[in-house]
Amino acid sequence: PPGSAAAGTVTRTTCGYCGVGCTLQVRVTGGEVAAVLPARDGPVNSGHACVKGRFAYGFLRAPDRLTRPLLRRGGRLEPVGWDEAIGHVARAMREAVAAAGPDTVAAISSARATNEENYLVQKFMRVVIGTNNVDNCSRLCHSPSAAGLTASFGLAGGTDAFEDVERADCLLVVGANPAEAHPVAGARLLAAALRGARLVVADPRAVGLARYADVHLRPRPGTNVALFHGLAHVILAEGLADEDFLRDRTTGLAELRELLAGYPPRAVQEITGVPAADLVAAARHYGRARRPAIVYGLGVTEHLHGTDGVRALANLAILRGAVGTGRGAGVTALRGQNNVQGASDMGALPDALPGYGKVTDPAARGRAERVWGVPLPDRPGLRIPDMFAAARGGRLRVLWIIGEDVCQTDPETGRVVAALAACPLVVCQELFLSETARRADVVLPAAAWPEKDGTFVNFDRRVQRVRPALPAPGEARADFAIVHALAAALGADLGCRTPAEALAECARLTPLFAGLSHERLDREGAVRWPAPAADRPGTASLYRERFATPDGRAHLAAAPYLPPGEEPDADYPLILITGRRWAHYNSGTMTRRTPNLRLDPRDQLDVHPDDAARLGLRDGDEVAVESRHGRARLRAAVGDQVAPGQVFCAFHFPGSGVNRLTATRGDTATSCPEYKVTPVRVRRAGR
Ligand code: SF4
């Protein structure tokens, strides 16, 4: 029982794996985690947790955990003291700025880190270095959500509370596999379907939820925009749109009507491969529901036209008046990482300050300048892919990477490795000697989420406390302390000495967070942003009175379908889709060092039986996979979760080299990589 002496200490915190944000009780005895249990009163999880949050904690005391700073000398990484390591980085930053200007330094902040750490990193880059070269890995997953939702509705978050989704009478789940990637949310969606909500799943793969779907739409990868326009076409053609809402609260209908005339079900079938009858059935389910909900994942965003996809999906909610009215459950983006929402909210973005004020906007800059006391750079900084290009081109002198294994998880890793090799100083803050850390010049040992103090923001904008259950091992430090040490070595004082002070400063700067503090979150539990004042509740459902766009109206988007960046052809006939599996998490740095490894011991390539027969493959065969960008080796797993002509694999293991195959090209609006469409060829290895 929590709190008893025999149980050791029990600390209530927020899961550091996915963006669902389950509340966990971490029990520590003898200086080690003895158990992690879901909190029965957790606002998102109500006593549930998945195999990651519940069991994947053994990495904390793994024998290869980094416990001392490392500095490269004579080609080898050698242990050094903190002063020497920090002094080395500070010197390199100072010299880079003096020799070639502040834009020769760049930082990749982390969606794994707390809000307070992200706040401090972006403040360091803007205030101490004088550049907007700071980004976070939402660039590679949900940056199209931020861009698309902001353009359609005004704010860069999901529109409603997840509880509303559970009360929906029709769930449209798109480009997501929540049963594996967000298991607690997936279970709640399934429960809603089993209670009677219509379930429409749109995903090329037979993901777990599809088994329970009333309609499963399987579009060809890269054709989402046409699919969503097809659904919208039927909703309008059959008189299912909410005309009063469209008249009173939206803009752009005439342009959209004109565009949608070109997307009748037969035409959409041609583009997407989805039978016209299924499309019509799905549109009727969504269009006739009293409380329809849209829940989507990276299958919508990780495309060449990911932002167009988000906006075309948002169109459906707008057409039905399912957002801002209480008559529907709006649009929910299932965020991948624990704090991908918060890292962007905190301004770890090259074009936006905390709270999303643009760096180019004098008013937004002025607000930050008054709080921070220095003039700020007004030119947008580099996005992550542009940082690598700048490094390869000799324009970057220091690249600081916090908690991201870019050499495993970013696309076209051959080019990422080349970028790191070309950059004079690469600094990596990590738990382990990851694929990225082992190529760095300085490695700084960092604390993990059960060792940290701060807050995360989950996928329905809940700001939740993160509390340290045990100390970091050896000399490892929280990212918060490392950023402060680096600032001090450069003669700067960032203020906000504690995470609580950092959130308080952010609250002064950011209307979205104005009413938030650690003390309030400790007292009340989770609070959703916008939280405009300390004595007012957070906001579960957005836009009840007006949308947060400049004219207060929801904006329908009329962008046409455009094809993906690469189509399969005779040389590369199969389409590779990448994603996650249930036992592991992203680069697998943490989960591979836990018993979860026994549940899922390696990356594999899912191949449809028809393709396997044509290629002469048997289940378990080692296969060579080639794209126009690189090669990888995997084990074939023959099964019909993938459609014919498509293959799927995760990216949890460094050895398989999956991201050597994927392409750097990305969403035209945000540079989010097109992970979901990579033409490849496959053959049995050794032939
Ligand atoms: Fe953690 Fe996500 Fe699993 Fe909840 S569903 S326990 S937040 S990994």
TrEMBL record:
In the C-terminal section; belongs to the prokaryotic molybdopterin-containing oxidoreductase family. Residues 8-64 form the 4Fe-4S Mo/W bis-MGD-type domain. Keywords: 4Fe-4S, Iron, Iron-sulfur, Metal-binding, Repeat. It comes from Sphaerisporangium rufum. The keyword DNA damage does not apply. GO terms for molecular function: 4 iron, 4 sulfur cluster binding; formate dehydrogenase (NAD+) activity; metal ion binding; molybdopterin cofactor binding; NADH dehydrogenase activity. It comes from the Bacteria. Coiled coil: none annotated. GO terms for biological process: formate metabolic process; respiratory electron transport chain. This is Formate dehydrogenase subunit alpha. One of its GO terms (cellular component) is membrane. The keyword Repeat applies.
